[in-house]
Write a structure and sequence with these properties.
The protein is built from 3 helices and 5 strands, in the order αββαβββα. The chain is globular. By secondary structure, it is of the alpha+beta class. A hairpin with a 2-residue loop joins strand 4 and strand 5 (about 85-95). It has a 5-stranded antiparallel β-sheet, with helices on both faces. The longest helix has 22 residues, at about 35-55. About 25% of the residues are buried. The protein has helices spanning about 1-10, 35-55, 100-115; strands at about 15-20, 25-30, 70-75, 75-85, 85-95. The chain starts with a helix and ends in a 16-residue tail after the last helix.
């Protein structure tokens, strides 16, 4: 998966960090970042996707799943995109990044490898009986 994350970073100037994570905030892969930073970002992403689900519940129609979160802060942008069942793609980018290009390239990456980014639940549900 490293080369695909590298392709994303190289195709969008201003990309800083790329992380693939599970819904519960565990890092699955990273590019252009150290393990500690990737782990902190993955944990923060778990909280964001949970908040997004709570907001989504307020919409009367649709599947209510989080698809994309974008946060602009002084110095750059943060993107969090659903990338498969219980898996997410997160990117930090400089403030000069082309936001449209970033969104498009992230969608392309998710479409190419989405089935490989699926994170199964940690515990199997048991059925009574």
């Amino acid at each position: 998966m490293d080369w695909m994350l590298k392709d994303l970073a190289e195709s969008v100037p201003g990309t800083r960090h790329i992380i693939v994570l599970t819904a519960d905030g565990l890092r699955m892969a990273q590019y252009n970042t150290d393990v500690d930073t990737a782990d902190r970002l993955a944990a923060a992403c778990a909280g964001l996707q949970s908040l997004s689900a709570a907001v989504g519940a307020e919409f009367p129609q649709g599947d209510k799943r989080m698809r994309l979160v974008v946060i602009e802060v002084g110095g750059g942008f943060f993107y969090l995109m659903a990338a498969g069942a219980r898996a997410y793609l997160a990117v930090l980018a400089d403030e000069g990044v082309d936001a449209g290009l970033m969104g498009q390239q992230m969608r392309n990456l998710v479409a190419r490898i989405g089935e490989h980014l699926t994170s199964p639940p940690r515990m199997e549900e048991r059925t009574a009986g």
